[in-house]
Design a protein that fits this description.
524 residues; ATP-binding; P-loop_NTPase; elongated; alpha+beta; ATP-dependent DNA helicase; nucleotide-binding
Length: 524
């Protein structure tokens, strides 16, 4: 999955801002936010921005009454030199204003397969096919234009391969029947159709000229601005006397190593940037000292050490669908105990994770996948210290509840899942049995966490019953009750403990509408 691969491939530095940005998007979607992202070439700025774009698309598509084709997110020159030079250009392109006399339509377009081209127009901006998108021409399809009496065979469609596989993904899906009819087997080739553009013959006449052409331009060379966010093994930079220090930096940093950098022209060391001569440097210094972004989330890997145990619960909303994301989620893998509900799993499915052991599992009983299933993983080093004290499932039609209690280092962790229509009394009985079993085994520090499907607010009819039950068992709510645990602004994933000083946190998810919750248990 491209989205999963994009999230997984983020660098250590670039992966932290994304989950911290999600709460702002989900809880206050109409409020603007302003985040400044900086860093050297190749640290993952463009990858992070593209990931944010995909997450925004996925979030808005799943909102009520939204249609996928109506979601348009336009990255406007997201990084570096390209930003300053092309913001105005990209905005006006998005508004379909004319800038060039011939609308970027060449009089003669030469086509040669396995040659570099760029897209000359904004064809499908949300899909990444925009003016300047680099690609390689792979195949040309010939046919006839629908003009009376014209039977000439001309190029009617071109198949290109973009540098990023995700570019053109929606277009390939939309035109899958045409791709099949053209006999294209490679799933990364994107069809580019002919377009028509009209423009005035000259400034002194009203005569309009219309060109019907493939929106491509040869591009074995490109401007420094267009090269922004690209990385190459070998580059040749043509230096002119007017190149600024910023442009030189952008050009030279496109190459992977110094051995691959070649220069044509006379290179003169640029004037060093100072606070006096560079307003950008002044602003960056100001932001670093006065406007540091404070992360709203606490990451398990930041607090993990040899003296604590991290247990995480997540209603994953189909492990079958999101297993690649789970396997590559470094935040998830930093935990010692991972408890997943609604796995939608079947007995034949394999969900092994390196360095983890499955200690508890339930699957869908029927061949049809549904909102059922539980998996508990324990990290290898902790496995000898784990003991399952209690397990109970109550199933009545589509209503079910699951309670599993396991001890670890003189503490009990109880995992809870209750389906939305399951009666509270059923879960109450299961929980009481689990708590009693822990006490009978002389384990008095108990943490209870999971998806209760009971809103932690007075308006929920089961709130008082749940709260009274926890008080009777000397358990305290240890999550912040002002936070939400779902994308629907509800707090139904809850965490209680007999130790009110236990640290508990709500995290973020890029795949499920439930947020993970996790606790830190201190070893005695």
């Amino acid at each position: 999955m491209p989205h999963t691969e994009k999230i997984a491939s983020q660098t250590e530095a670039s992966r932290f801002p994304l989950p911290n940005l999600l709460p702002e998007i989900k809880t206050n979607p109409s409020e603007p936010f302003y985040h400044f992202i900086s860093g050297g070439a190749g640290v993952g700025k463009s990858l992070l921005i593209n990931s944010i774009k995909q997450v925004l698309e996925r979030f808005w598509i799943h909102q009520p009454n939204n249609k996928p084709d109506d979601i348009h997110i336009l990255p406007i020159a997201p990084t570096g030199t390209k930003s300053k030079a092309t913001i105005t250009y990209m905005l006006t392109q998005a508004q379909n204003l004319q800038h060039k006399k011939t609308q970027n339509m060449q009089y003669l377009l030469k086509l040669c397969t396995e040659t570099k081209y760029i897209v000359s127009h904004n064809i499908a901006v949300p899909d990444g096919i925009s003016n300047g998108s680099p690609c390689i021409l792979k195949k040309v399809i010939y046919g006839q234009l629908c003009e009376k009496g014209n039977r000439e065979q001309i190029p009617i469609r071109a198949y290109v391969q973009f540098e990023k596989e995700t570019t053109g993904e929606k277009t390939r899906q939309k035109l899958k029947n045409i791709i099949k009819a053209d006999g294209i087997a490679d799933k990364t080739w994107t069809p580019i159709q002919r377009i028509c553009r009209s423009f005035s013959l000259n400034e002194n006449t009203h005569i309009q000229v219309t060109r019907n052409q493939l929106p491509l331009l040869p591009s074995n060379a490109q401007t420094i601005h267009c090269s922004q966010s690209c990385t190459y093994k070998n580059i040749l930079v043509f230096i002119t006397k007017n190149l600024s220090r910023k442009l030189l930096y952008t050009a030279f940093s496109r190459v992977e190593s110094l051995q691959g950098l070649h220069i044509s022209g006379i290179y003169k060391k640029p004037i060093r940037a100072t606070i006096e001569n560079d307003p950008s440097l002044r602003e960056m210094i100001r932001m670093r000292s006065e406007a540091q972004l404070q992360f709203s989330l606490t990451f398990p890997e930041e607090v993990k050490n040899n003296e604590n145990i991290i247990a995480l619960f997540h209603n994953v909303r189909s492990l079958n669908l999101h297993f690649p994301n789970v396997c590559s989620d470094r935040t998830l893998l930093a935990c010692d105990i991972i408890m997943l509900a609604e796995t939608w799993s079947q007995p034949a499915d394999r969900y092994e994770i390196d360095n983890f052991t499955i200690v508890y599992r339930t699957d869908c009983a029927s061949t049809k996948r549904k909102a059922f299933g539980t998996l508990i993983y324990v990290k290898g080093a902790l496995l000898p210290h784990i003991n399952i004290l209690f397990q109970n499932e109550s199933i009545s039609g589509t209503n079910h509840s699951t309670v599993v209690a396991l001890t670890v280092c003189s503490k009990t962790v109880i995992m809870v899942y209750k389906s939305p229509k399951c009666q509270w009394l059923v879960l109450q009985q299961q929980l009481q049995q689990a708590i009693n079993t822990s006490l009978q085994n002389n384990v008095h520090e108990i943490a209870i966490m999971g998806d209760f499907n009971i809103k932690y607010q007075v308006s929920d009819p089961n709130f008082k019953n749940l709260n009274d039950f926890m008080i009777q068992n000397n358990c305290f709510m240890i999550l912040d009750p002002t936070k939400v645990s779902t994308d629907h602004n509800s707090l139904i994933d809850l965490c209680f403990s007999t130790n009110p000083l236990t640290n508990a946190f709500i995290f973020e998810s890029v795949t499920s509408d439930h947020k993970p919750i996790w606790i830190e248990l201190i070893n005695p």
